[in-house]
Amino acid sequence: MKKLLFFLILLLVVGYLVWRWWNSGTAEGRGEDLVFNRIWIDRMPKSETDQVHVFAAITEEPVGIFDHTSRWQGAWELFRWEPRGDGQIELLYPQSKGRERASYRAWKCNENKFDLCLELSGATHGARRYFSQKEWEIGTATARTLPRRIEQLLPAP
C-alpha cells in the first residue's frame, strides 16, 4: 500500500512538472509586455539609403505595420491584429484581404548595441529577427499616425 501511495505522489509531481514545462510558452513567457507599443528593426541602418525592415504593433488600436524603408524610400503595409494568448497573433491585411498567424518571442538582450530582441515567425512580411531599444516605445498612436510616429522615433544613420 505504501508503494502505491508513493507511486501516486510521484506521478502527481511528475505530471505537475510536465504541465509547468508545457505552459512555459504562454504569452507572458514569450514577452508579450515587450512586443507591443515599440519599434522593432532588423538592424541599424548604415546610411541614409540603407533599407531596413521595421515592425510595430500597438494596443491602443490593434493595428501594426511592416515597413521596408530607408530615409528616402520605403514601402509599408498596415495590418490589424488579434491576440491568441499563446505567444501568437492573427494578422489581418485589409488591403489584400490576407490573413495569417504569427508567433513571437521577445526578451531582454544585449546584441548589436540593442536592449531587446524579437523573433517573429509565420508572417510572410518583414524579417524573422528584430531588435529594439528601451527608448523606442511608441506611446499613443493610431493607424493614421503610426507611420509618422515610426519615422520620428527611428534614429538618423
Q: What labels describe this entry?
A:
21% helix, globular, 8 strands, Lipocalin, eight-stranded antiparallel β-sheet, 157 residues, 3 helices, alpha+beta
Description of the structure:
This protein has three helices and eight strands; from the N terminus they run H-H-E-E-E-E-E-E-E-E-H. Strand 6 and strand 7 form a beta hairpin. The protein has 157 residues and is α+β, with helices and mostly antiparallel strands. It has a single domain (32-153), classed as Lipocalin. It has helices at 2-22, 32-35, 146-153; strands at residues 40-41, 52-58, 63-69, 74-83, 88-93, 98-111, 114-121, 129-132. An eight-stranded antiparallel beta sheet has the order 1-2-3-4-5-6-7-8. The chain is globular. The termini are far apart. Residues 18-27 have low confidence and may be disordered.
Concise overview:
With 157 residues, this protein is α+β, with helices and mostly antiparallel strands. The protein contains three helices and eight strands, in the order ααββββββββα. The chain has a single domain, classed as Beta Barrel (Lipocalin), CATH 2.40.128.
List the helices and strands and how they pair.
Elements: H1 2-22, H2 32-35, E1 40-41, E2 52-58, E3 63-69, E4 74-83, E5 88-93, E6 98-111, E7 114-121, E8 129-132, H3 146-153
Antiparallel strand pairs: 1-2, 2-3, 3-4, 4-5, 5-6, 6-7, 7-8
